[in-house]
Automatic annotation (TrEMBL), chain A:
<keyword id="KW-0812">Transmembrane</keyword>
<protein>
    <submittedName>
        <fullName>Succinate dehydrogenase, cytochrome b558 subunit</fullName>
    </submittedName>
</protein>
<feature type="transmembrane region" description="Helical">
    <location>
        <begin position="55"/>
        <end position="76"/>
    </location>
</feature>
<feature type="binding site" description="axial binding residue">
    <location>
        <position position="70"/>
    </location>
    <ligand>
        <name>heme</name>
    </ligand>
</feature>
<keyword id="KW-0408">Iron</keyword>
<feature type="transmembrane region" description="Helical">
    <location>
        <begin position="12"/>
        <end position="35"/>
    </location>
</feature>
<dbReference type="Pfam" id="PF01127">
    <property type="entry name" value="Sdh_cyt"/>
</dbReference>
<keyword id="KW-0479">Metal-binding</keyword>
<feature type="binding site" description="axial binding residue">
    <location>
        <position position="113"/>
    </location>
    <ligand>
        <name>heme</name>
    </ligand>
</feature>
Automatic annotation (TrEMBL), chain B:
<feature type="domain" description="4Fe-4S ferredoxin-type">
    <location>
        <begin position="146"/>
        <end position="174"/>
    </location>
</feature>
<dbReference type="GO" id="GO:0051538">
    <property type="term" value="F:3 iron, 4 sulfur cluster binding"/>
</dbReference>
<dbReference type="GO" id="GO:0051539">
    <property type="term" value="F:4 iron, 4 sulfur cluster binding"/>
</dbReference>
<keyword id="KW-0408">Iron</keyword>
<dbReference type="GO" id="GO:0009055">
    <property type="term" value="F:electron transfer activity"/>
</dbReference>
<keyword id="KW-0816">Tricarboxylic acid cycle</keyword>
<dbReference type="InterPro" id="IPR012675">
    <property type="entry name" value="Beta-grasp_dom_sf"/>
</dbReference>
<keyword id="KW-0411">Iron-sulfur</keyword>
<dbReference type="Pfam" id="PF13085">
    <property type="entry name" value="Fer2_3"/>
</dbReference>
Length: 202, 253
């Protein structure tokens, strides 16, 4: 059999976006939501997450490697596209280009976010309410985080839709319409959780 | 007076495969019920552009003139479609004609669509019935399935879906939307089904099916109304199962 590495890479890229990255994203947003119960409650949750056993192994296997692969292969996918929304202004064609744009924004955001929190923690900073409060008190950083988080959630929700198509789970037009509404719901719910969290930090 | 009515065209021209493209404008007398091809024929009779300069006749491909062969596809007012079924009365003027640049331009509006036919060869988009002896009649196809498959079989390899697809370009070697539909059609046929795994494995190779990014322009653009995106998802499902069988091993296929 001649090479089918492309097929493998593409399917791996699609899978990793949902498992584990998507699952991690939901978990991350939910745990951060503890802030709405006050700084004390967030610190407790952050402390628990930050002191899980085998932390570095979990992070590497569940977060770093999958995101690295998804990001690098995703950039390749994004930059091999020739968008034509000017000619075909359909909903799906817009989602197609927004998926690629949001992917790039998300990558920039995540790189900065990891540098500012996880890398800082590795150099001795404490991940706590104070850390995030300081970051988000700057109006510029608040907007940056807001755009970054919403872009991440959009990329996840819309990616969930195309995951279902790419693996052949939603085949009929009706199933693809239903999954469109379900993924819009996923976006709204997660966006609500995230925005509430961001506001609570300020 | 109706006699003075004219039709204006802006046509993207190119003298040879590698020369630069340029625009040329034409104005020809209106006749009722004109289509783009009859207008191109009118220009060909007396190739003089709007400035009154003599020029070369425009080159384009055509064959059936009833939207079943796909040869006369070009980009008309920004949309790829067949020029035989593009009626002048329904188009905004000046009517802009361009070649489908997803394919190599041969000259003017004529393009080389061989890549589509090469793809169909690669994925074995046919039903193998030849043998060294008479194989007898194949399995019958249920009538209901035949009617469904007939819709898929309307594909004329015109290339409009490839032109509309944001992923068919010089940066990738994605075969394009039409091929999914052909693979599904031949895999659905009771005799064609016997070579299903061969077709899927060929399609799963590099430069085959994986370029699809689900923009779903193909199904919007298809002049035959073929449910291409349904075919894409259906072939994706089959490819998923085939990949599992290839990886874990299977006692058949």
């Amino acid at each position: 059999m001649a090479g089918n590495r492309e097929f493998f890479n593409r399917r791996l890229h699609s899978l990793l976006g949902v498992i584990p990255i998507g699952v991690f994203l939901v978990q991350h947003l939910v745990v951060n939501h503890f802030i709405t119960g006050g700084p004390e409650s967030f610190n407790k949750a952050a402390d628990f997450m930050g002191n899980l056993p085998f932390q570095i192994v979990l992070e590497t296997v569940v977060i770093y490697l999958p995101i690295l692969f998804h990001a690098i292969y995703g950039l390749y996918i994004a930059f091999t596209a020739n968008s034509n929304v000017n000619k075909y202004g359909t909903y799906r064609n817009w989602m197609y280009i927004l998926q690629r744009i949001s992917g790039v924004i998300t990558l920039i955001f995540i790189a900065w976010h990891v540098w500012q929190t996880r890398v800082a923690a590795a150099f001795g900073a404490e991940v706590s309410y104070d850390m995030m409060h300081d970051i988000l008190s700057s109006p510029f950083m608040f907007v940056f985080y807001l755009v970054g988080v919403l872009s991440t959630i959009f990329h996840f929700a819309n990616g969930l839709w195309s995951f279902l198509v790419s693996w052949g789970i939603t085949v009929s037009p009706r199933s693809q319409v239903i999954s469109t509404y379900v993924t819009i719901g996923v976006f709204i719910v997660l966006a609500f959780i995230a925005v509430q969290t961001l506001i609570a930090f300020v | 007076m109706a006699e003075n009515k004219t039709v204006k065209f802006t046509i993207m021209r190119q003298d040879s495969e590698n020369s630069a493209a340029y625009e040329e404008e034409f104005e020809i007398p209106y006749r009722p019920n004109m289509n783009v091809i009859s207008a191109l024929m009118e220009i060909r009779k007396n190739p003089v552009n709007v400035k009154g300069q003599a020029t070369t006749p425009i080159t384009w491909d055509m064959n059936c003139l009833e939207e079943v062969c796909g040869a006369c596809s070009m980009v008309i007012n920004g949309k790829p479609r067949q020029s035989c079924s593009a009626l002048v009365d329904q188009l905004t003027q000046p009517i802009r004609l361009e070649p489908m640049r997803t394919f190599p331009v041969v000259r003017d509006l004529q393009v080389d669509r061989s890549r589509m036919f090469d793809s169909l060869k690669k994925v074995k988009a046919w039903i193998p019935i030849d043998g060294t002896y008479d194989l007898g009649p194949g399995p019958r196809m249920p009538e209901k399935k035949r009617q469904w498959a007939y819709e898929l079989s309307k594909c004329m390899t015109c290339g409009v879906c490839l032109e509309a697809c944001p992923n068919v370009n010089s940066k990738t070697n994605f075969m394009g939307p039409a091929v999914f539909n052909q693979v599904r059609l031949f895999n659905a046929h009771p005799t064609g089904e016997m070579n299903k795994s061969e077709r899927l494995n060929a399609f799963m190779e590099d430069g085959g099916m994986q370029g699809c990014g689900n923009s779903q322009n193909c199904v919007q653009a298809c002049p035959k109304g073929i449910p291409i995106t349904t075919s894409i998802a259906a072939v994706n499902r089959d490819a998923t199962m085939q990949a599992f069988r290839n990886f874990f091993g299977s006692d058949h296929d």
